[in-house]
Amino acid sequence: MFVIADDFDVLPFNLPNLKDENGDTIEGFDAFVVEQEELALRAILGDVFYEAFVLGLAAPSPDQRWLDLKNGKDYDDQDNKLRKWRGMKDLLRPLIYSLWTRYRAGQNSGIGVVVADAENSVVSSSNIEIVNGQNLFMNKAGSNEYQRSTLYQFLFLSGDTYVPDVATEFDNIKEYIEDNWEWPGFENEFDF
Q: How many Å apart are CA 181 and CA 141, to the nearest integer?
């Protein structure tokens, strides 16, 4: 798990009420995070590379390449300009914020999903926060068309650092990324 409840204590990704009165994370949040992180990373990294990443991090002494992928690292882009991959927490925090906000916007009841009616206040739409979180995640993930300081660019320019992990089918990480990277695109307020 790359993000935890404490990562959502400050704006712009503030998720209130993730801790109970004892300071423990509420039931269901950690499982939600683990599931959503895996779904997102499998989609953009592909299954082979995702599984190598998870196994690499689980090793008693993880290789530096897995720690760099997890925590971030400075690197030079195609024009020899210094860029920074900021790590998985920076990538996944806006996504988890967006998804948690989306799934918690209504409450399940005996008659379906309802929105609470608060006294002396107006319930507003959370669509803008949901869309902004999803789109920021997409910006940080990157794609062939959008690369600056993204996960895509970091991996694409990593040389042979990760080749042994994808060498079963591909000669280099660039071929693997081009074949496996699934970029779902941006979202708008209308879910298009």
A: 10
Give the pLDDT score at 39: 95
DSSP 58-72: HSSS--HHHHHHHH-
- Predicted TM-score (pTM) of the model is 0.87
Contacts of 26 (CB under 8 A, 6+ apart): 5, 17, 18, 19, 20
CA–CA dist 167, 48 (Å, integer): 10
Nearest to 8 by CA among 163, 128, 153, 129: 129
- One-letter amino acid at 170 equals F
Average predicted confidence (pLDDT) for the chain: 86
- pLDDT for res 179: 84
